[in-house]
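Progress against Task 2.4 (sequence-to-structure conversion) is shown through the following example record, which the project officer requested during the mid-term review.
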Amino acid sequence: MPCRYIFIEFNTPEEAERARMAMDKHPFDARHRFQINLLSDIETFKDMDEEYEEPEPEEYKPRVGSFPLLLLGSL
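Structure tokens generated for the chain above:
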């Protein structure tokens, strides 16, 4: 999923901070979360490396207890 940006202007810094506290890391879907940054923090991200590095795949570990539930569902 590509990154998307939205810029929202608030009337006061306090409103902006309340919105950031309420929405930062809020689940967007099963694999994604909102990340909220204040415009004043933009300098932190200015020199970010934009080259994508693919993460190492995680080893599959079956969940304990899910197999019996699947069997019961097919009865």
